[in-house]
Amino acid sequence: MSKTIKKICCIGAGYVGGPTMSVIAKQCPHIDVTIVDVNAARINAWNDKNLENLPVYEPGLSEIVEEARNRNLFFSTDIDRAIDEADMIFISVNTPTKNYGKGKGLAADLKYIELCARQIAAVAKNNKIVVEKSTLPVRTAAALKSILDNTGNGVDFHILSNPEFLAEGTAITDLINPDRVLIGGENENAIAALVDIYANWVERSKILTTNLWSSELSKLTANAFLAQRVSSINAISALCEKTGANVDEVAKAIGMDTRIGSKFLKASVGFGGSCFQKDILNLVYIARSYGLTEVADYWDQVIHMNDYQKHRFADHIIQTLYNTVSGKKIAFLGWAFKKDTNDTRESAAIYVADYLLNEQAEITVYDPKVSAERIYADLDDLNSRSSDENRRLVKIVNTPYDACDDAHAIAILTEWDVFKTYDWQKIKEKMKKPAFVFDGRKLLNRKELEDIGFKYYAIGE
Ligand code: UDX
Ligand code: UDX
Ligand code: ADP
Q: Any idea which positions bind substrate (predicted)?
């Protein structure tokens, strides 16, 4: 008989931990869920009465938090207490790419995971099931287990891998209606305890159980395949621009082959987000560490193609603007890595901006959900120029019309639906002529824009 879970603790109140645990709390009113974080400001924001101030923007999230918060969903900085009281502990802390030492720029930095493991070991006075939720390199569970068993108080720890497949912007629907739930582990009872939680709302046939390593590797592989599809269609987009083919037509034609499938074939200025690049770099690092050079090189190309696409887009802007953007105002519509999120990690916009700023462009950014503070932090993190210079060259405004006023060109970096509803006639009148639009998301209607008098470029046409 598996143990019935009554209390869950989740360490890490970020883009994964926050939405995932909110949905578990909503779907399982009989389970108390406490999300803890070292970042007190973040926890305060999750507890804010004004739901507009939640630290993560996701359609449908605030309604769930409103329903479950302080009923069976709690946000706290008291990590020890939440660990002590929980039967099951999810680890959902960040695992960024290492920026120092061995594996710098490739391997995942597991220091936050290790800190969690040591804290759990130190606090736990009874048996716990520990669940890896963050994406981790294969065989991390072994390291976790070793720390827990060697530093703990003689209690039993069972480790499960339960990677999260939600995509940002659609997190809540992905969680409520997942394609599958994956649970890897060695102990039947521990696996069954987690299966029972998901079975409150997910069909049993969609809950897969595997060994630990298959589960860990499946997560990296899923993200690698998804990113590869984007790089593959982006590679074809470059060829389309040279030959007169249209990448949307090509995507539609190949996508109707059921072996290929139609989803995830949208050419773009390049993929971003916290997962794709990090997970592929991880896969490359692991493959190299096992001496699998060809495997490593194969996946590395997905990243190369993505970098190429971002540069190619920026280069095209420069070339079209008569080979110089120095002192020219370029309006950026969108900064988030995709629509319907305020997350900007690895967003293509950051790198396109960096490239144009190297050419002394002046950039004005409008994004419906991203704060000015975040945008400047993203630019400062590049270490390409001083933060004073970033603030001198980049302005962040509150309306799209302010962004485009007097601009030489508009670059669309995020596919926010609202951009389609703007008064493009009015925008054009206030721009420098010829008025250029560079659509990195193939969002707008070419005919409509050309009829208004824009010079319109879209990826892959
Ligand atoms: C991804 C995976 O989809 C998800 O399963 C995993 O759990 C985390 O990583 P996420 O990064 O949140 O999710 O968003 P996703 O929708 O996958 O988009 C990633 C990037 O690829 C975005 O920048 C998006 O704009 C881009 N993309 C996606 C394209 O350019 N074209 C596409 O067809 C699809
Ligand atoms: C292929 C295309 O499928 C078809 O649409 C096109 O018109 C011609 O090229 P074909 O080469 O006849 O058809 O066979 P296919 O079933 O695609 O297999 C090609 C090779 O891939 C075979 O050697 C097959 O064994 C191998 N393969 C296919 C795998 O190794 N694994 C797979 O999952 C699928
Ligand atoms: P993800 O997209 O994986 O959810 P985030 O960066 O959004 O990543 O969230 C991870 C959260 O984990 C952050 O809020 C961070 O403060 C928190 N965190 C990292 N290490 C610890 C730790 N040792 N204890 C508690 N919280 C932690």
A: 164-168, 219-223, 259, 266-272, 337-338, 441
